[in-house]
Amino acid sequence: MAYMTRNRNEQDAQTASSPFGYANHVAPQIAQPAVTQLPPVISLPLLLRQPLAEPSWIVPGLLPVGVSLLAGPARVDKALLANQLGLSVATGTPFLHRFPVRQGRVLYLALAESRVHVRGRAINLLNNQHSPEAFHVAFQWSPFRQGGLADLEDTLAQLEGPRLVIVDPLEFVQPLRGDNAGYGYRARQFTTPEAALSFFVPLHELATRYDLAMLLLHHLSDDWPNSRRDPLAGLSPTGLTAASACNLLLTTRADIHTCELHYAGVHVAEHRLRLTYDNARGEWREEPE
User: Fold this and answer.
1) Which among 172, 169, 166, 173 has a CA at the least distance from the CA of 107?
2) CB neighbour class for 124 (10 Å; exposed up to 12, middle 13-18, buried from 19)
3) Radius of gyration of the chain, Cα coordinates, nearest whole angstrom
4) What is the model's pTM?
């Protein structure tokens, strides 16, 4: 053993004394390929035999855990419908007097409305009922790429049992268009679909981690669906992107007091509801079929 050690030491000394010895000595170690793990691959028959996992729901049949969109032209009161959903989840009462909900805390980012507007809508919707402690409101939030996403995660960690996050509107925290958007009526959008949809990935991971739904409000052009030039347009039944868990499209029918809620998703069957604005209650109500 001493002989082998001595010979190895002598060999190392000779290698070090040679001007090219060090490179020749360490080159084989550098050239060794790194061991990497290949992505998992399964056969189609095995894929077909695997049972599908049942999604976790916040509103069964309508709103699963994950990131969903509530979109429509600006003239349609999407915020009212979102607030009705938020109060239903916070109080555990059926949404639209029809859909049972999974009760929990709600975080509503009212980024385009004043405190007076939010207070007035809440008073009308509560209709002299007790205000739920589980409904939380924020009027300012940083863009997601400038610390807003980290703030959202920290806020959710402090809330006990969060089940719904409403972002109104999405564009205030996640710009969807390029810097030249709005500079003249001939300006063209250069945002690629990949760039416009990349924000879904961290939001979906956050929603899955906290077992909640995120509802992102998005304003479409007034000539929708005649014009589909929108960053979130896609091939889903609603005409919106298929990257979301569920798309809820709210469009007017005869006037702004009557609308149609068209929703569909990966685990959500396509359906259409006719809604009418109830002046006495200040809320959207489903029309009887």
Assistant:
1) 166
2) middle
3) 27
4) 0.79
Residue 178's Cβ-count burial label (10 Å; 0-12, 13-18, 19+) is middle
Query: How many Cβ atoms sit within 10 Å of the Cβ of residue 55?
Result: 15
Q: What are the tens digits of pLDDT across the range 94-146?
A: 999 999 999 999 999 999 999 999 999 999 999 888 889 999 999 999 999 99
User: 246: number of CA atoms within 13 Å, CB side?
Assistant: 27
Measured distance CA(167)–CA(173) in Å, rounded: 8
Q: Where in the chain is the domain with CATH 3.40.50.300?
A: 57-286
Residues 182-235: pLDDT tens digits? Answer: 433 333 444 445 555 788 999 999 999 999 999 999 998 877 777 667 778 887
**In the structure, how many helices (H) and strands (E) does the chain have?**
8, 11
Task: Measure the CA–CA gap between 88 and 109, rounded to whole angstroms.
Answer: 17
Cβ neighbours for 117, distance < 8 A, ≥ 6 positions apart: none
Which pLDDT belongs to residue 187? 36
Find out whether 111 and 140 touch, Cβ atoms under 8 Å: yes
How far apart CA 231 and CA 50 sit, in angstroms, is: 34
Q: What is the pLDDT of residue 13?
A: 47
Domain 57-286: which CATH number of 3.40.50.300, 3.40.190.10, 3.40.250.10, 3.30.450.40: 3.40.50.300
Main-chain dihedrals φ then ψ at residue 92, nearest 5 degrees: 80, 20
